[in-house]
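ok new one. same drill as before - structure tokens go in, u give me an amino acid for every spot. 396 of them this time. try not to just spam alanines like last time pls lmao
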């Protein structure tokens, strides 16, 4: 954070904020690598404007990047994320508030669009028997062709099960919208009772696709995945959720911190097996005892998604937190640190090919430094004016 403080604040953003005079500025999620939102928080601090970072998803604080600047408030989902913000991003505990997961509020209210028979016909299932839903993961978690091989191995284990319910169960696979290239041509065409839908890449926020996604979970007997937020959505809808560890996904399952939130020993609701045979046994046992699975998902939802009460939506709690921030005394404008000017040449030299040594051996290093600093600031100013400031002013 000290190095970031030494970098000059973008004057164009400061001018815009001082012109608009917002009571609070919210950004999300702030932690992306090279996030331009850092410049907005720095400008807000320089202008004496309250700022807050809103953590958008369950994995943001552990696998996206670091907060390189400290806002006045960080809004997270739950106590686990509150601890992550404090331990990994060095945000003081009194600047973190847990409100629940606002983006999932709609899942508590949503209802199926189609009756079961109509849905099964739409996605190509052969009949209305119970079906298991496999939800695909992003390419960051599982490469598409590796996921296809995994699914085929999984279905083969179901077909070889001693439990007749699993042996004859239908299977619906829903590939991730941005990780589906290996699903064309159809890799399940030779497996009876197994289909994938949608049949091509799709827009996940399109209303029809959203409805299909909800219906696929709602009508399923259980949901299986590698490591995806669809597991959380399935828990909210009340379906038992399963996963199994696989060597090819070790780095993106046990190798990620957010995956451990799903483990029962950490308050999670996902039954995670070490082997595919253990997974099949877990499926068989859990499907025979849906009440136990429901109780487990409810405990998880009550701690991870709605820590203020399962029946209390997170959005109003979030609004209350923002309003409290708006009502608090505005921070004093924070000037640039006096030592920043001395540090900037070192930061700039580190960014030059060859590092400080390469910069220092140039014929006129000071002149080169001045030119580079001028070009950097000029380019940044033009970029902000064109891509951020002008569009925002045009909307007024």
């Amino acid at each position: 954070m000290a190095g970031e403080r030494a970098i000059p604040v973008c004057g164009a953003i400061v001018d815009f904020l001082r012109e608009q005079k917002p009571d609070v500025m919210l950004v999300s999620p702030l932690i992306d690598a090279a996030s331009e939102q850092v410049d907005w928080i720095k400008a807000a601090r320089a202008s004496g404007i309250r700022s807050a970072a809103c953590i958008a998803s369950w994995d943001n604080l552990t696998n996206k990047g670091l907060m390189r600047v400290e806002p006045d408030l960080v809004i997270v989902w739950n106590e686990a994320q509150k601890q992550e913000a404090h331990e990994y991003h060095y945000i003081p505990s009194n600047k973190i508030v847990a409100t629940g997961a606002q983006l999932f509020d709609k899942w508590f209210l949503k209802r199926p669009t189609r009756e079961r028979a109509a849905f099964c016909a739409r996605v190509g299932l052969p009949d209305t028997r119970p079906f298991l839903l496999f939800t695909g993961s992003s390419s960051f978690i599982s490469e598409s062709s590796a996921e296809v091989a995994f699914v085929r191995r999984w279905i083969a284990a179901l077909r070889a099960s001693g439990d007749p319910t699993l042996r004859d169960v239908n299977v619906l696979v829903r590939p991730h919208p941005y990780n589906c290239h290996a699903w064309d041509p159809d890799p399940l065409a030779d497996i009876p009772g197994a289909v994938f839908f949608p049949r091509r890449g799709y827009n996940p926020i399109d209303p029809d696709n959203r409805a299909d996604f909800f219906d696929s979970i709602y009508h399923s007997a259980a949901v299986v995945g590698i490591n995806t937020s669809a597991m959380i959505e399935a828990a909210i809808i009340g379906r038992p959720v399963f996963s199994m560890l696989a060597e090819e996904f070790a780095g993106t399952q046990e190798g990620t911190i957010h995956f451990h939130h799903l483990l029962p020993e950490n308050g999670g609701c996902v039954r995670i097996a070490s082997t595919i045979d253990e997974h099949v046994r877990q499926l068989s046992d859990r499907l025979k005892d849906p009440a136990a699975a429901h109780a487990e998902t409810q405990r998880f939802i009550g701690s991870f998604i709605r820590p203020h009460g399962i029946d209390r939506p997170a959005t109003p709690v979030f609004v209350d937190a923002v309003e409290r921030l708006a009502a608090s005394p505005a921070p004093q404008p924070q000037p640039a640190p006096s030592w920043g000017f001395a540090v900037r040449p070192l930061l700039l030299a580190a960014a030059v090919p060859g590092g400080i040594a390469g910069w220092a051996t140039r014929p006129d290093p000071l002149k080169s430094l001045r030119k580079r600093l001028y070009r950097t600031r000029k380019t940044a100013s033009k970029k902000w004016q064109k891509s951020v400031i002008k569009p925002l002013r045009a909307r007024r």
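The chain is about 45% helix and 10% strand. and btw The chain has three domains: 1-101+307-335, 105-305, 338-396.
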